[in-house]
Amino acid sequence: MLLVRGDREFLVAPGEELHTDLGVVEAPEDPEPGETVETHLGEPFTVRELRGPDLFNHLERTGAPMMPKDVGLVAGFTGVSRSDRVLDAGTGTGVLAAHLGRMGAEVVTYERDEEFADVARENMELAEVADTVEVRTGDLTEHLDELSGFDVLTLDTENAPEVVAEADDLLVGGGYVAVYSPFVESAKATADAAREAGLSSVETTETIQREMDFDDRGSRPSTAGVGHTGYLTIARNE
Q1: What is the rounded (10 degree) CA torsion for 98, 104, 106, 111?
Q2: pLDDT of residue 154
Q3: If exposure means fewest CB atoms within 10 Å of the residue's CB, which of 34, 55, 68, 166 is most exposed?
Q4: Are the CB atoms for 24 and 17 separated by under 8 Å?
Q5: Strand pairing partners for 234?
Q6: CA 226/CA 210 separation, integer angstroms
């Protein structure tokens, strides 16, 4: 849940104590959206229900998390939905895995860094998806022979082409691959691997989002902020 006071927001688990400059407040065990709780100094905070965009803003970060626009593209291109099984690698902060879990998918995600994996598990608890998202420590490429029957494969790793080459064994018929790449060279290698593996509908898209500025002089895209974040390669298993 979120505890909100004005423009300040804190992501907390039920029953957790939050220490602020306004005092200590205990998050309710069974929160109701809109409920007011007070610190030991009598300062009020409002309970707000957690929504998907809050994950990007409040989960503990172990690196640059996937941007909301890119999460949306992954979901839109793959059609991931309730009851799907998703195999993910390159967990990091876990924003993508948490989003997919909140959509109702069952997610198995691999993170090579043990400390990052521990943080991701805590983030899954905060995102209320610990029951549907399993964070495993390790390199996915070392476990490919043990895995199969997934509906969607999502990757944000340097060795993505190696995994994509095995997509036919990992995915059900009609299942989708979605690979996020920060560099165009890795995106090309992924697309090449997908085609060599016999996957269909292989397409790579540069993910760009530009905010608009409106003022008395006119309207134009903002020159501030991040426009380009990476490349997304989508493919489908036959």
Answers
A1: -10
A2: 98
A3: 34
A4: yes
A5: 178, 203
A6: 8
Say which residue the tokens 């560099």 belong to: 183
How far is residue 90's CA from residue 178's CA, in Å, rounded to a whole number? 12
What values do phi and psi take at 97, rounded to 5? Answer: -60, -40
Over the stretch 38-75, which tens digit does the pLDDT of each residue have? 999 999 999 998 888 899 988 999 988 899 999 999 99
How do the domains of the chain map onto residue ranges? 2-49, 54-236
Nearest one of 222, 90, 85 to 155, comparing CA atoms: 90
The tens digit of pLDDT for each residue in 15-36 reads: 899 999 999 999 999 888 999 9
Q: What is the CATH number of domain 54-236?
A: 3.40.50.150
Tell me the helices (H) and strands (E) count for the chain, helix number first. Answer: 7, 15
> pLDDT per residue over 152-201, tens digit each?
999 999 999 999 999 999 999 999 999 999 999 999 999 999 999 999 99
Predicted structure pTM score: 0.88
| Interacting residues of 235 by C-beta distance below 8 A, sequence separation 6+ | 164, 167, 176, 177, 191, 194, 199, 200, 201, 202, 203
Average pLDDT over residues 213-233: 86
Token pair for residue 179? 């690979």
